[in-house]
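Q: I'm writing a short explainer about dTDP-4-dehydrorhamnose reductase for a general audience and would like to include a description of its predicted shape. Could you first generate the structure from this sequence?
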Amino acid sequence: MNPTQEQARWLVTGAGGMLGQDVLAALDAEGERAVALDRAALDLTDPEAVRRTLEHHRPAVVVNCAAWTAVDDAETREAEALRVNGDGPAHLADACARTGAVLLHVSTDYVFAGDAAAPYAEDAPTAPRSAYGRTKLAGEQAVLKALPDHGYVVRTAWLYGTGGPNFVRTMIRLAGERDTVDVVDDQRGQPTWSADLAGLLLALGRGALAGTAPAGIYHGTSSGETTWYGLTREIFRLLGTDPDRVRPTTSAAFTRPAPRPAYSVLGHDRFRAAGLAPLRDWRAALTQAFPEIHRVQTKENPA
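A: Of course. Here's the predicted structure. Afterward I'll give you a sentence or two in plain language.
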């Protein structure tokens, strides 16, 4: 994909990350031209750099995949995380307001308390319990305030894929290193393939440009739900090894600086209302994604 940058309809920030790579691949597959900007190419915490970049490229749609994702580090470095997760999206939103671009901003389930008993609706009250969640909520609020008519917040969760470290790749590695693996069984969520989310972002961006997808909050997670334990058993099954090597445990056995949501299941009503199909069941997605993830993980970390 080597368009002249001025011709590109799309601009992707955080392009070097797992989701950013998949967004670029989805755009390329659909013949959409895109400007790809990683952290070295654009510092989102620099408002003038952001303004100049958008005024130069004049994209129709900006997809913000850039984020501070070190959840535990954010507990002691919240001000730094806020610059990336809160100020960065604010600068992007302000620049989009100047140029008229649509902004698709990727957020997280961590904006919720994680104590629900039914899927969180898009308009459910937020109550983050971690510094990471607070900084991501600040980014959401900045986007929706600056871009009431063409700002889109897409919350996702339990993201995995080929292009970066993630839970699925870790469990593949541990399956080759340990006889048994202890995994928490008291946190529920929706494992989501980054390539599936990328396709959904492409569809949402097109819907935004066509006027068929209203601005606001959407939930981009796979359908269905499981626990980390249930997900790991499925990974072991796909590896062709005994799922009973995975042993259930509780969150109390893995103390971390940042609290993890016990319940991260998100509802998808707004995608349906916009005429867009929510993502497929997590098992179907994992089954399709697994061979390539396994191949890359094995190649990069040979036994």
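A: For your explainer, you could say: The two ends are 34 Å apart (CA to CA).
Q: Perfect, that's easy to follow.
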